[in-house]
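Sat 14:20. Reprocessing the chain from the morning session after the first attempt stalled halfway. Input below, unchanged.
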Amino acid sequence: MDMIEIRQLDSRQLSAVYQDYMIHDFHAAELKPLRMMLDAIARGEYICLGCFRQETLCGYAMLVQVGADLLLDYFAVIGKFRDSGIGSRFLGMLRGQFADADSLLIESENPDYMENDAERQTAERRLRFYARCGCQDTGVTAQVFGVEYRILELPVGKLHSQDEIRAVYAKLYHSFLSAPRYNRHMLLR
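Finished this time. Tokens:
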């Protein structure tokens, strides 16, 4: 099995990953502006990680961090490395890296709200991937800037109740959004 490792990405590397990959890997409605991510890094509330095989970037993970709570904001494997097992290994390594966290939440597109069969099947495939990697569906859903998500939890300690998940999720988003923007663009269920 190939050796892979996780390395922290600096602001310059994040900018390159954003331009080279993220704008292609995520729908425009899902993608935060790069400036918002860079500002969060400067505040110490955003972690950018790359998954490397030697010097080759194979995947990336961007996480919001407030205290001991984390949200896996973006997670992707670079196209030519998909379906090779790197994604599950990378996610497992993240679980180990953040073993001391209180919570690690994940947003995954809700297949019930997809516009067509192809998008629904992609969303269902993502949910199955996360389930195989040990993620738990929390039963909490959210609409964020018009995109519908199921909120998952990657167990790094105890699993949390729905009320705890909602509180942590709201806290994490408040680190990015002003109260008026949060109230206008966020709906937790």
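Strands lie at 5-8, 46-53, 56-66, 69-77, 103-109, 136-144, 147-153, 186-188.
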